[in-house]
Amino acid sequence: MTAPTTAGPFGALREQLTAAAGAFAGSSGAVAEILAGIVDDVDRALGEELEIFPVCHHSPASALAMVRRLRAKQPKVIYLELCEDLQPLLGELRNCSLPVAVQAFASELDGFPADWGPLSVVAPITEASAEYQAIAYALETPGVELVLVDRSTDHVFQWSPRRPADAADEAPAGGDVEAAAPAGEEAALHGDAVGVEIGDLRPRFAELEAYLLHHGKVRHWSEWWDQYVEQPLADADHDTYRQVMVLIGSLFRRLRPAGADRQDRDEDRERYMWTRMRQHLAASGADPADCLYVCGAFHAASRVEQFGLRADAPFEIGPRTGTRWHYGLIPSSHSAIEAQFGLAPGSVSIASATWTKAVARTKLSPFRLEGQRGGRTRTGGRRRATPAPVPAAGVADRLSGYLAQPPATQSLDEAELRGWCVDIVRLARRNGYLASTADAIAVFETSILLAGLRNRARPTPYDFADAAVTCIEKDVVPGRRDVRRLCEILFGGDRVGQVGYEALPPLARDVHDRLAPLGLDLEKRTIQRALVDLRANPELVPCSDLLWRLRHLLPRDAVRPIMGERRLGQRSIQESWDLALGRSQRALIELGYEGVTVEQVLEQRLRRAVRGPAATASVALEAVEDAIRLLDSPRLVDELGNRAVELLAAERTVDDAPEVLRRIRRLLAHHRATGPLPAWCEAFVTTGYAHYCTLLPTAFLDEESGVRQVGAMLGFLFGMESLALSLGCDRSQLELAVAQSHPETPAKVALLWAARHQLGLLPLAELRERCAALLANPLVVPAFPQYLSGFVQALEPVPGLAPFVVEVMSSAFARLPDPVLLPWLPTLITTLREHGAELVPLLVREAGRTFPGSLAALDAWVPPWSRPTSPPPAPAVPAAVSGPVAALLAANPQSVDAVAALLGCAGGWREVDAATTAVPAGLTALLAAHPESVDAVADLLAATPR
């Protein structure tokens, strides 16, 4: 750094500050160097050939100074500190209602880590900002060129990698802030986008900011800035404004931690901008005297070697990555700007009110884009001619006088304060507060008192808000809004911008056109109800299809069905919708960055979902369902289904088995009802049968596989068994898998028993004996709820076990004493809630069928499993019959004995008294009537050799 000199217009000021440092500082070296360096920065910035106009973002004082300077200088070229690739969008501001944000968006990354996506950069623009005045002047004045000179949005992420260290750093110059999406609908309009603004003036030295807030008797930086910078500079002349702003920027620049990463990025941005300006001047041949460089005051005090048009230090601008960026306008709001850039709540609304009041007081005519929505058109081109500016003789020292004289005192405006008090009491009463005239008087007096305590001649809006909270919000907030929020509404409210139809991307315009038959104004921010009778108005069917697709793509509150549903194979004939597309403009606009039509975006997202690194079989089946419900494309359904088969075969875990089972059952039922099964469904069943048979023994033994997952696997194997076998699968695969399973946890042991019972390897009687043995073992009783959990999960693959599970649970409650039953009862409840919540209703229905339905029948009721079983009746001994057949068999018992031995019949021959045994009369009569058969048998026996 060069040694400070006493020459130049600021030599006297430099000497005064050096002397003051020596008088008040113990060691004047460092302090004197800082103070002298600040003066040097001011001298250097104001002595530059290209006029530098320092600004602060959303500052009414900067906007007023910008309007005055533009009308006086009438520059031909304006260099603006804003991302250079955002320039084509600025003309679309005519079709918007401010505030809006210029956005660059990228979802497909090339050159950045995949986990960074999607990338988004926004630059909010409000009417009370210097950058908007410069844009409006340049676009509405013939012969004026606007050039954006800041680094591109691609370089924003090249130079500002997202890492934990960045989150801890303070905000960089120019407003590069990465803040979490704030709560609230309007505050979240920017989402998680990186914000870019012109001139974020805030100390980077935490101790300095704390010192200023403490001695300024304010709570937030926005309040300090309004009190000590905005109000004094609102009526300052051009030279005073420039010198003070550069002085503040230099002070904050020098008093910041050294070695911060963002310091390097700030200097690179300055090198970038000066390089672009020199390139443009060389290419266009413009006169620097007719140019104006609008940048943040922080960058105006730059000390990089590339500073100035006469500098010849090279700076190489690196190439952009291959990332494809999409550009558009999104709605913004005061609260979104405040939340993203760390401003005090309500500060942007107060700045807007201050701007409106200052314009009316100073009779200035601000610049406005032709056709700008939301107000009367006022442009610089239609105003009376402004006299040609008189060339300045040189830079004069205005800082010495400004810093030496006390601020101009402003008298109390009692009418304004009285109006605030009356209005806040009226708002408070509308929102449920018991406010009265006495509260208005108290707020009036308290505001004056607070202003006096803070050394202010008149109450500021911040003093008034504090007084209102103190006097009105005494105990609780009766409604949704507290008093501080009511004060924000009083000072202008949270104004929300809107992007006009002509500035929307093609997809958003297509949505508005296709929903036009509904007869609704979709640009309104209110929620609108759409009643769709598809039977009476079949022309509204395309609108219904589009609404269901938007329901899938947009946030849940943007398109919300009130009546009607769209499921597989089912469509409602009447629907009712709540539409809030005006509130969700940002989401709809960003949807337009992905494609031209909603159907194209939906198809791309479904394909991306099944091809992504986190894709699973359940995700693919969900995509198949969505494709069937929302898109009439059998080709896409087959493609997604085949991908589901591939993902299922490649899975090595069974975490998604319950979801896979639920979705494939629904899809199979749909296809069976609508036609033959597609090939991918058959492939999914056969692949899943073999896949789950292979993983079953490991899942039974693996501790990470839950009982619910194993139950779903068995549900797939047993539920799809008939279809799988018909498609060529082998049942022995399942039998071998069950035989190889050896679980250790109680719940999985119960599941294995249920599976063996379903295969016929474990009879119900043996299963009942095992459960009785568990209840009889005191060491196993505490873990018995886990066994019950396994049996409950077994209701999925083996629903016929429901009566047995009711029996086991009832037996446990009946047999176990209270000291044993009560400790594990909470465990049973929590276990069933965690692992079998969806199967408990099945168990309850079975219990309802088992237990008596009335209290009177309960006393005489005996459980079915406790009823004594009577021994089976002894088989009746047939009466011995005499006759030729009996005599023949008795004479030749060998054949009868052989047949009895073959059949396993025990017993022997009995002696029958022929005298007491009568031949049945019917048999005798039958043989007498038909002797041919008897004769034939006799002849056969006679001919048979013995």
Strand content: 5-15%
Read across the widest sheet, the strand sequence of neighbours is: 1-8-2-6
Number of discrete helical segments: 40
Taking the alpha carbons of the first and last residues, their distance comes to 137 Å
List low-confidence stretches. Answer: 164-183, 376-393
Q: What is Rg?
A: 44 Å
Oligomer: single chain
Shape by Cα distribution: elongated
What can be said about the biggest beta sheet?
A: 4 strands, parallel
The SS-based structural class is: alpha/beta
Verbal overview:
About 4% of the residues have low confidence. Strands 1-8-2-6 form a 4-stranded parallel β-sheet. Strands 7-5-4-9 form a 4-stranded mixed β-sheet, with helices on both faces. Strands 11-15-12 form a 3-stranded antiparallel β-sheet, with helices on one face. The protein has 946 residues and is of the alpha/beta class. The longest helix is centred in the first third of the chain and has 24 residues.
